[in-house]
Amino acid sequence: MKRILPVVFLSGLSLATSIFAGENPVWPMPSPFPQSPSGVNSATFPVPRLDWVVRVKMNNDKASNAASGIQLVFDGDSITDGWQGAGKEIWAERYGKLGAFDFGISGDRTEHVLWRISQGQLEGLHPKLVAVMIGTNNMGANSVEQIAEGVKAIVNEYRTRCPDATILLQAIFPRGHLATDPARAKIRETNKILAGLADGKTVIFLDFGDKFLEADGALSPDVMPDFLHPNAKGYQIWADAIQPVIDRFFPQSR
User: Fold this and answer.
1) Which residues pair with 219 in a beta bridge?
2) For the chain, which end, N or C, has fewer CB atoms within 10 Å of the first or last residue's CB respectively?
3) What's the CA dihedral at 151, 147, 74, 117 to 10 degrees?
4) Can you give the pLDDT at residue 20?
5) Whole-model pTM?
6) CA distance 2 to 6
7) What pLDDT is recorded for position 252?
8) Residue 18 within a domain
9) How many domains does one find in the chain?
């Protein structure tokens, strides 16, 4: 494995370098890379993260090769990406047999998910259920209304490109150790708007963030050691919270 990793890394670096240098990349890319115009809500304008174009390409290829079997899609940022890390055992147990695919990428904001979708992420996919949670990384740069608009744009894209799928829109998780953390209020206000996107049929909204909290509202380090990312216990709580929806679409899931 130690001899393979440098080859993989160099291959990815070569692809990224060819993109940055304007050479002929193996994956068609827009040139120049788009940037949010002045005055436009950056949370709704699709842009790529240049450091992760290789991963997007790999995910798209992997999904394309397995398209006919993908019935359950997860999308989001590092918290969703973590299903392949701290949550991998629970993922294998709960979702491995359901034709599940995880598109989550660490560090993503709403605009990055929109860009991924615009680059063929969902081409050929016909999932039954799409679990989306995104927006925590927008907290610093965008207002509550802008973040909600970005999430709405993602929901609309999934509804357009996967019209037969139901969207499970999950509230943004609480972050920060104490209930008084400034991010908490902003997250609550954003989630209030997100709840209004649901109709209970094509879009289902779930807010189970309180399951990660202690009685005084503190975020438990036993489930999120860095007060942002769940550990294995946190992913177990997450899986249990959404299981009733999973059962609705995959009756034989357990």
Assistant:
1) 213
2) N
3) 60
4) 41
5) 0.82
6) 7
7) 75
8) no
9) 1
Q: Which domain holds residue 118?
A: 33-249
pLDDT at 64: 94
8 Å CB contact between 91 and 100? yes
217 part of a folded domain: yes
Angle (deg, nearest 10), helices 144-161 and 110-118 = 20
Residue 12 domain flag: no
CATH number at residue 241: 3.40.50.1110
Is residue 229 annotated as a catalytic residue, yes or no? yes
Taking residue 10's Cβ as centre, other Cβ atoms within 10 Å add up to 11
Residue type, 231: N
Q: Confirm whether 61 is a catalytic residue.
A: no
Whole-number pLDDT of residue 17 = 41
- State residue 28's pLDDT score: 52
153: helix, strand or coil: helix
From the candidates 77, 102, 112, 229, which is the catalytic residue?
Answer: 229
> Is 247 tagged catalytic?
no
Coil, strand or helix at 225: coil
Q: Where are the alpha helices (DSSP H) in the chain?
A: 5-21, 53-65, 78-81, 88-94, 110-118, 144-161, 182-195, 232-249
Q: Which of 61, 199, 226, 240 is catalytic?
A: 226
Q: Which of 18, 64, 78, 253 is catalytic?
A: 78
For residue 184, the model assigns a pLDDT of 97
Q: Looking at the domain assignment, is residue 11 inside a domain?
A: no
**pLDDT averaged per 10 residues, the chain (length 254):** 36 43 45 75 84 87 94 98 98 95 97 96 97 98 98 98 98 97 97 97 97 97 97 98 97 71
